[in-house]
Amino acid sequence: MNSPALSDLRNVVFCGHGSAGKSTLVDRLLATAGAASVGQNGDRICDSDELEKRHGHSIESAVTRCQFAGKRFTLIDTPGYPEFIGQTVAALRAVEMACICVHAGDGIQVNTRRTFAEATEAGVGRGIVVTRLDDPKADFGTLLHDMQELWGPAVVAFNVPLGQGDSLRGVASALDLPIEARDAAINLAHAHERLVERIVETDEALMEKYFEGEMPDAATLAALLHKAVAKGLFIPVFCTAATGSIGLSELLEGLAIAAPAPCDLPRFAKQEGEALEVGCDADGPLVAQVFKTRIDPFVQKLSYLRIYSGRLSKDQAVHVQGVRKDVKMHPLYRCQGNEIETVDSAGAGEIVATAKMDELHIGTSLGEAVMAPISFPQPMVGLAVTSKMRGDEQKLALSLQKLVEEDPTFRLSRDSQTSELVMNGMSDLHLQLLRERLATRDKLEVDTHDPKIPYRETIASAAEGSYRHKKQSGGRGQFAEVHIRVLPMPHDVDIEQFATKSQFPSMRDYHYDPSCHFLWVDSIVGATIPGNFMPAVEKGLKDRLGKGVLAGYHLQDLAVEVHFGKHHPVDSSEAAFRIAASLALRDVAQKAGPSLLEPLVTMEITVPDEHVGDVYSDMSSRGGRVLGSESAGGGQQTVSCQVPLRCVSHYDRTLSSMTGGQGSYSMDFSHYESVPANIQHEIVASAKLAEEED
Ligand SMILES: Nc1nc2c(ncn2[C@@H]2O[C@H](COP(=O)(O)OP(=O)(O)OP(=O)(O)O)[C@@H](O)[C@H]2O)c(=O)[nH]1
Ligand SMILES: [Mg+2]
């Protein structure tokens, strides 16, 4: 199949709040264009995955295609649940236009705003599709007004519903001269005037003529649309009711003239550190980027690529970002949801997939120029995970790695403290769905529990003492004696100023470990501990740092000076010194006022104005400090606060029930602070208990 003319390509993503009707809309658009017999016998292109069918919601984006009105469309459906926002963020890379879908009855919701903001950030053209206009609560006039209030005067009706709710019968174009229709949801003549004015305002020459009384014809107006949309000067509103097949061909026709073509949108990349504009040219140098990965049970890993410039074909050797040698391309496919069809090559403006290429990951650029990385939100919610079946650990690790490949908002970490394997996701629901994916795709059952809080230990005062390790059992014995001083080291101390002869008069050497703010000082005089054993002494101290002295948490913010020792010419060994040093620190730190520290996080919580008071009082009841709040626009405020991590596990649930699902938040590690005495008492007691049970 020949590549289509660049000006005939339309790449559009559909995004918005959950249940707005996006997947239904995309399916029905494909049917309208005759690309798929969806809707018959329950067949679906979007949401064809078993998990999506089970839940009745999209979980990942679906790339589909059709031809209509002389244009070749790639339509991408995205999930509306806020936990899958990463899918939308990535899909926005592949398109020139985002259609934000707004449920006619429910109006503007949290993820409607969020996806609109993401589309704006991505710099693509924006349009609004009002969906489900057959809903009994539909009130198009009020909704249009609310959207104009929120997103400004660029939001203009492109067509208008005739009737609405039960009496919805069709849509009328606002671009054409107004027809006679008493049941139009808003005045058609006004809608026409407003649309014409908005388009005319984007072109100076036309605007002059217009205000002199000359009316531009529909063809002149239509020719301006895609450029105005690309520049963000015009945000057309389309009206639909997908299940009733209303407004569908009108939407495709509208997109054919109003959605920017690939060449309408400037793209930028970097080459050897220099910024460069990517010309949209199939004969130009190759510039492409991976925006999606899917692990398919049959073809295994599929990587979805957007080509911005140049051509790609099977067996072509291409430069892949981060790989030294050129890589040979595997076969290319065009996609219709989960179905794929081989193509020989694809050029600028097109979206294709390729299979089993280990070098490709979401965000990877192909060609010499590098596209900006795609930035995804940080996952906030952690769950420690183990496989139910013993011996499945290897399999679990592999399966989790597949999820990491597919989902950029899912990460794995191993807690260095607790050595638990922790899955990090956007919410409880997100992690729950990934668990289900492990069960259905990989037949892997896992146990999960809340991850432990990474507490730390420290000391409050200086102390000194020693430990003698001596064992005589049959043959060769073990002997080592280590004398140390410990002193607390304030967090903001400058090591160069601290590790000096005035602080440690006999100091010969020191090592500093910034990860736990620990200073090791060697003040041994006269080789009371021979130099060859000093590394073992340092290791022994580090062993103890890792094990702690109170409740098994890592020690930090202290200096340990090793100043004296005893050894035996035969019985001393590295192992003996390592043990003696570890136990010396255990005993001496006990005398130095050990205490627990806990991580504090900074949170930014965005809620509708009326819930700000709730956030304040909830935070203070959790022992958090509110740092301030500021307007986030559109009747929302962002509250910043600092709070112990221990007090905000499952905060997403709290926020959701406090705001009826209208809040969002971000969370970042801030610093460590002392744990209140009563809490410390509880933690130490339960650690003791666990130790005894062991
Ligand atoms: N009455 C009516 N129902 C619709 C219409 N469009 C979709 N629905 C129904 O609304 C429900 C949700 O539709 P979906 O297409 O799955 O919504 P979505 O926006 O893709 O949802 P997420 O994938 O969760 O974001 C389904 O039960 C649809 O049948 C419509 O135009 N009219
Ligand atoms: Mg969907």
List the helices and strands and how they pair.
Elements: E1 9-16, H1 22-32, H2 50-55, E2 62-68, E3 71-77, H3 85-91, E4 97-103, H4 110-122, E5 125-131, H5 140-151, E6 155-157, E7 159-162, E8 170-173, H6 188-200, H7 204-211, H8 218-230, E9 235-239, H9 248-258, E10 267-271, E11 274-278, E12 287-296, E13 300-309, E14 311-313, E15 317-318, E16 327-328, E17 332-336, E18 339-343, E19 345-347, E20 351-355, E21 365-366, E22 370-371, E23 381-387, H10 393-406, E24 411-414, E25 421-425, H11 428-442, E26 446-449, E27 456-459, E28 463-471, E29 478-488, H12 495-498, E30 509-513, E31 518-522, H13 534-547, E32 554-555, E33 558-566, H14 574-590, E34 594-608, H15 612-621, E35 625-633, E36 636-644, H16 651-659, E37 664-674, H17 677-693
Parallel strand pairs: 1-3, 1-4, 4-5, 5-9, 6-9, 27-32, 31-33
Antiparallel strand pairs: 2-3, 7-8, 10-11, 10-22, 12-13, 12-21, 13-20, 14-19, 15-16, 17-18, 17-20, 23-25, 23-26, 24-25, 27-34, 28-29, 29-33, 30-31, 34-36, 34-37, 35-36
Helix pairs in contact: 1-9, 13-14
Bound molecules: guanosine-5'-triphosphate and magnesium ion.
Guanosine-5'-triphosphate is lined by residues 18-24, 57-58, 79-81, 131-132, 134, 241-243.
Textual characterization of the structure:
The protein has 694 residues and is α+β, with helices and mostly antiparallel strands. The protein folds into 5 domains: 7-264, P-loop containing nucleotide triphosphate hydrolases (Rossmann fold), CATH 3.40.50.300; 272-371, Elongation Factor Tu (Ef-tu), domain 3; 381-449, Alpha-Beta Plaits (2-Layer Sandwich), CATH 3.30.70; 457-592, Ribosomal Protein S5, domain 2 (2-Layer Sandwich), CATH 3.30.230; 598-678, Alpha-Beta Plaits (2-Layer Sandwich), CATH 3.30.70.240. The protein is 28% helix and 32% strand. It has 17 helices and 37 strands. Strands 2-3-1-4-5-9-6 form a 7-stranded mixed sheet, with helices on both faces. Strands 18-17-20-13-12-21 form a 6-stranded antiparallel sheet. Strands 27, 32, 34, 35, 36 and 37 form a 6-stranded mixed sheet that branches. A hairpin with a 4-residue loop joins strand 30 and strand 31. Helix 1 crosses helix 9. It is elongated. The structure holds guanosine-5'-triphosphate and magnesium ion.
